[in-house]
Amino acid sequence: SQTIHQWPATLVQPVGSPLSLECTVEGTSNPNLYWYRQAAGRGLQLLFYSVGIGQISSEVPQNLSASRPQDRQFILSSKKLLLSDSGFYLCAWSDRPWETQYFGPGTRLLVL
Amino acid sequence: ILNVEQSPQSLHVQEGDSTNFTCSFPSSNFYALHWYRWETAKSPEALFVMTLNGDEKKKGRISATLNTKEGYSYLYIKGSQPEDSATYLCAFNFGNEKLTFGTGTRLTIIP
Fold it and tell me: What is residue B2's predicted lDDT score, i.e. its pLDDT?
């Protein structure tokens, strides 16, 4: 069966520090991968998606970036965090683009 | 900008009562409507995907209907139980493009 992992679970970072959140999927190949953010009081916002290794589409201009160095690995990064980057970050995968998505456990990020 | 709206934002229901809430979406170029359940401290879990007007899906005490012509979906929970407490998210595919999520309905079941 397929599983999706995210780490860390919780992170407190100072403004201006770098960020790296990792997501890995097991039990499937060529997954479509997604990064979402939920800010306080708001819905899930799509940040990035990837249909294959090295293929990244950005939905929202911001100081975040994503990379997919391996088929089942998706990384969310920032060089300098902003206060507004605080939120709950979810990684998800699907077999085909935009069909049922399966979510990881999430990372709660607090930027101080 | 495509908006998916869910109502109510939050709901308190007595254990044993039945309840329902709404997801509204643009009716043009519809592709699919998804429902997810998001329990506290867990990941969102897929409940249903519906693609055809008039679709009805059921999973235990939870069911959903779809009206693509008028752009809404209802989620019903029969005989609410404490374990039904969660945020229920709907998400909409427009022309097989990205999922656009609503802000959810937070359901609390009162024992």
Answer: 64
